[in-house]
Amino acid sequence: MHYSIQQIADALGATAEGVTDLTITHVAEPAAAGADALAIAMAPAYAEGLQSGQARAAVLWAEADWRSLGLEAAVLIGRPRYALSGLTRLLDQGPSIAPGIHPTAVIDPSAEIGANASIGPLVVIGPGVRIGANARIDSHVSIGRGSTIGADVLIHAGVRIGTQVHIGDRFVCNPGTVIGGDGFSFVTPQASGMEQARGAMSDTVENTAHSWVKIHSLGGVEIGDDVEIGSNSTVDAGTIRATRIGRGTKIDNMVMIGHNAVLGEDCLFCGHSGAAGSTVVGDRVVLAGQSGLADNITVGNDVVVTAGTKVLSNVASGRVMMGFPAVKMSTNIESYKALRRLPRLFREVAELRKVLPKAGGKD
Q1: Which of 10, 115, 172, 312 sits between 20 and 30 A of 306, alpha carbons compared?
Q2: Which residues lie closer than 8 Å to 331 by C-beta, 6 or more apart?
Q3: E strands present in 19-56
Q4: Which residues of the chain, if any, have pLDDT below 70?
Q5: Candidate list 2, 102, 166, 259, residue with the active-site label
Q6: CA–CA separation, 27 vs 85, rounded Å?
Q7: Which one-letter DSSP state was computed for residue 354?
Q8: Do residues 264 and 247 touch, judged by C-beta distance below 8 A?
Q9: Strands of 106-107's sheet in order across
Q10: What is the DSSP track for 156-192?
């Protein structure tokens, strides 16, 4: 894989300077870059590393004096991180999946495979499955009965897709993820301890000596176009209706989406975050790492949930939430400041208690 500096600049809508026909084979951090690498130095602080490396060309910020950095060529960009998205897309070759259907794949005769699909070793595709054109499916993937997958998808090794899962175009799913497993839904013949606690808000519950009975998941999963899901995440099937993930939503590694949840469009769920069952999430919602949404709540559009935050009740659109239980970020910060002042306040109260009895005795 070789690209010229001019080709890279054209792909990014950026400006090429210097020896624009100079070619590179890969990208690297400035200090580790060899002569055939394109160094990524998108801010002055990163450019300092160019002196330790051997890069002849680099991606730099728009106003950079590339000659003074000892370079032969440069790609100058206006919005560095956004340009990094285009650059990595250009250079990412993805997994090596041979064209066509591998002889060890097991495909039910009733399944429909789109044109130019690539299906790797030991893939299992169940009855009634439909897969769109140009799909790339890596080894050891299984796709259950009646599921449909759109065009131009990339499904990495070891993904498990259950029955009645319907996925749009340009879907990307990373290794080890499970979509369409049963929801965690159990009931008891009489009110369980959990129901008692939630209903009465009591400190104690009665011993009901119950056993848990499973509520089966019949609803499947629906995923829109341009969704990406990271490694080892889980999306549970709905009970009666489908669990839904809207167009353009991106889900990180080890994220849990509970049964019946509805996620809007262009959401961002970071690692170890999760939405419990029957939660409804609006568009462009961000859940930072290790944050979570309780079941049966509604979160509006454009909400930002900060890292480690636990949301237990409905959230209006546009809010930034922080803490456990979650409150507006400004309220959480104010409460935290007050908490840090408590030791000093206790000392002051103790001093006042020493003085006040004496003053009272004089009266």
Answers
A1: 172
A2: none
A3: 23-24, 26-28, 37-40
A4: 357-363
A5: 259
A6: 13
A7: H
A8: no
A9: 106-107, 124-125, 142-143, 160-161, 178-181, 234-236, 256-257, 274-275, 292-293, 310-311
A10: -TT-EE-TTEEE-TT-EE-TT-EEEEPP--EE-SS--
CB proximity list for 82: less than 8 A, separation 6 or greater: none
- Closest among 236, 266, 238, 270 to 251, alpha carbons compared: 270
Give how far the C-alpha of residue 69 lies from the chain's centroid of Cα atoms, to the nearest Å: 37
Question: How many residues in the chain?
Answer: 363
Measured distance CA(113)–CA(362) in Å, rounded: 95
Cβ contact 348:340 at 8 Å: no
Contact call for residues 90 and 8 (beta carbons, < 8 A): yes
Question: Residue 325: what residue type?
Answer: P
Full-model pTM = 0.86
- Tens-place pLDDT, residues 182-222: 999 998 888 887 777 777 777 787 877 778 999 999 999 99
Q: b/e per residue, 221-251, with b = 16+ CB within 10 A? A: bbbbbbbebbbebbbbbbbeebbbbbbbbbb
Active site residue 259: yes
- Tokens 């993805």 belong to 94
What is the model's pLDDT at position 33? 92
Instruction: Give phi and psi for 101, each to the nearest 5.
Output: -110, 125
**Cα 5 from Cα 28, distance rounded (Å):** 15
Q: How far is CA 83 from CA 13, 62, 95, 311, in A?
A: 9, 11, 23, 34
Residue 325's pLDDT is 94
| Per-residue pLDDT, 306 | 97
